[in-house]
Amino acid sequence: MEVKTKVPENAKLVSGGSGFLIDTKGFVITNAHVLKGEGAIVVNSLGQEFKASIVYSDKNSDLALLKIEDEDYKQAKAIPFTIRKKSSDLGEDIFTLGFPRNDNDIVYGKGYLSAQTGFNGDSNTYQIQISANPGYSGAPVFNENNELIGIMSSRQKLAEGVAFAIKSDKLFDLVETLEENELTKDLNVKLNKQKVKGAKNRKAQINNFKNYIYSVRAFN
C-alpha cells in the first residue's frame, strides 16, 4: 500500500535536518538554517509524517520552533529527558540521535564535550568531539543522566570529528522571547526541568528517546 505523503502536491523539498520534541503538545526544536522553505513536515523513526507549522525562527541563535498540527499526532504523557539549565562539564560523555542520511533511519553517535565554548570562543555553544554529518543539524545532544545539554548546530569543515552544539539553556531564552511576544505568548511552551529517573543503560536511553526525535523536511 502506498503511503500518502504530507508534503503538499507540487511542493519541492528544499532543506532538511533533525529536530526533537521539547513539549508534548507538539513543539519541535530544530536549527533555523534547516528551515530554508516556507513550510515543513516532521517524520518519526517509524516513517510516520506529520504536518507542522514554523512558529518561530531566529537566525542569530540558529534555533527554530515547529508545532506539529496533525490529527495523526498522538500526544505523549511526558518528555523523557530533562532540559539542563546549568553548564556541562568538560570531558562529559555525550551522545546524539538524529537523521543525518535523508532517510527514516535514526542514527546514534557518541563523543564527549571538548570545549566550553564554540567556534571563535562563542559562549552560546559547546565544542563537541563527535562524527557529525550536516543532516545532524538540530539533533539533540544528551549526557548519560537523561539530560539534554545541547542542540547540534554547525560543523567545522577543517577539523574531522569537531562539531558545535548550542547550549540547552538557550531554549529557556527562546521560551522567554515567545512569552514576551504578542503573537506567540499564547503558545504556552513548557520545558521539562524536572530530573528524569530513567535508565542509565545506553540502549534503554536510546529506546526511550527515539520516538521524540524527528527528521525535519522543509519545502517551498
What's the story with the biggest beta sheet? 6 strands, antiparallel, barrel
Distance between the termini: 27 Å
Order of helices and strands: EEEEEEEEEEEEHHE
The helix content is under 10%
Strand content: 35-45%
- Indicate the mean pLDDT: 92
Rg on CA atoms, Å = 16 Å
Helix/strand structural class: mainly beta
Instruction: List segments where confidence is low: pLDDT < 50 over at least 5 consecutive residues.
Output: none
If strands are numbered along the chain, what order do they take across the biggest sheet? 1-2-5-4-3-13
Strands, count: 13
Written account of the structure:
The chain is mostly beta strands and 220 residues long. The protein is 9% helix and 38% strand. The chain is built from 2 helices and 13 strands, in the order E-E-E-E-E-E-E-E-E-E-E-E-H-H-E. It has helices spanning 170-180, 202-209, and strands spanning 13-23, 27-30, 39-43, 49-58, 63-68, 82-83, 93-98, 107-115, 125-129, 140-143, 147-155, 162-167, 213-219. It has a 6-stranded antiparallel barrel. The mean pLDDT is 92.
Concise summary:
With 220 residues, the protein is mainly β. It has helices at residues 170-180, 202-209, and strands at 13-23, 27-30, 39-43, 49-58, 63-68, 82-83, 93-98, 107-115, 125-129, 140-143, 147-155, 162-167, 213-219. It is 9% helix and 38% strand.
